[in-house]
Write a structure and sequence with these properties.
The longest helix is centred in the C-terminal third of the chain and has 24 residues. The chain has 322 residues and is of the alpha+beta class. It has three domains: 135 residues, Beta Polymerase, domain 2 (2-Layer Sandwich), CATH 3.30.460; 71 residues, no CATH class; 94 residues, no CATH class. Helix content is 51%, strand content 14%. It starts with a strand and ends with a helix. The chain is built from 14 helices and seven strands.
């Protein structure tokens, strides 16, 4: 195993570390010629100083995770946040001098990223749905519960399609969509509510129960927010950070690390902001991110051909040199 790059990651890369923060290290490695020839190359190498994996990380803990070049390329081509952030890490984050292969990746990162940042977008959407205070989402869930409760529980949702179609016309969080079936089969219709998808052939009582849980959870969260209790401030700071990052990436094609809004993120992380204000910010950022996708400066798809050729050339050279 040959490390191509190792860098500090997490809060120390974002600029949001506190005295309680542990140290995360990420990297990319190249297999040896022997590992390539005999197919013994690992995909991920993970090591940490923590002996009790169930215990909370302490400031003295170091978590080290390295990805093979091939795995890393797959991660960045699919828009995974970790891989994209690694490509934009400044030289000051590197623990040691990077190998030429990593330098080539950074020089060509524009080929590897695209507006198909599903992991970024999906995370922002989930956090907005989880922490946002807008009533529109819970109202959509409640409306679906009301519609499906009109039908006998054993009946499929298809029987209530006309009413669901009417509801979808007046709510941005209720949609009837078609999804490709497995292995090129016929498309199937789904009900999508608050970013959750349900096949229309499911029973009304099952889906109504799932939607009721959303309504109930929202009520509990609203009560906790009012009391400022039981709030995961660290998760909230992550939600805000990723939203800022996603917007910057979509609109500029760049990603600034450490984050310019690090001071705000630390304040949120330490619980120094009101929950209601942070929730409003997450809602605002989620809307901003969604509106940035159509006009993004990023290409529709990454240059997979270049990535595959680069992967082949690097591995071929390792084998030639033995």
């Amino acid at each position: 195993m040959i490390p191509a790059v190792e860098m500090v990651f997490g809060s120390r890369l974002y600029g949001t570390a506190t005295p309680e923060s542990d140290t995360d290290i990420k990297g990319v490695f190249l297999p040896t010629a022997e590992e390539i020839v005999f197919g013994r190359a690992d995909r991920t190498i993970h090591a940490g100083t923590k002996s009790d994996q169930a215990a909370k990380n302490s400031p003295d803990d170091v978590d080290r995770e390295l990805y093979s070049l091939r795995k890393f390329l797959g991660m960045v081509l699919s828009g995974q946040t970790v891989a994209v952030e690694m490509l934009f890490a400044p030289a000051s984050a590197y623990i040691s001098a990077p190998k030429p292969a990593w330098k080539t990746l950074v020089e060509n990162r524009g080929r590897l990223i695209s507006r198909n940042t599903k992991a970024f977008l999906g995370y922002v959407r989930r956090q907005a749905a989880k922490y946002g205070i807008k009533g529109s989402r819970v109202a959509a869930a409640r409306e679906v519960v009301d519609i499906l409760s009109q039908a006998p529980g054993t009946q499929q949702m298809t029987a209530m399609r006309p009413l669901l179609l009417v509801a979808s016309a007046s709510s941005e969080h209720i949609k009837l969509i078609e999804v490709e079936a497995y292995r090129d089969g016929p498309k199937a219709e789904y009900l999508e509510v608050c970013d959750r998808k349900f096949m229309m052939s499911l029973r009304c009582d099952y889906v109504a129960d799932s939607m009721q849980k959303i309504v109930d959870t929202y009520g509990q969260r609203a009560l906790a927010a009012e009391k400022e209790s039981g709030i995961d401030w660290k998760a909230l700071s992550h939600a805000v950070r990723v939203a800022f990052q996603t917007h910057e990436l979509l609109t500029t094609g760049e990603l600034t690390l450490p984050r310019p809004e690090a001071h705000l993120l630390i304040n949120i992380k330490l619980g120094q902001k009101k929950y209601v204000d942070v929730a409003k910010l997450i809602e605002k950022l989620a809307t901003l991110v969604e509106s940035s996708v159509p006009a993004s400066v990023l290409p529709e798809e990454p240059d997979t051909e270049w990535a595959h050729r680069f992967d082949y050339e690097v591995h071929s050279e390792i084998v030639r040199k033995g």
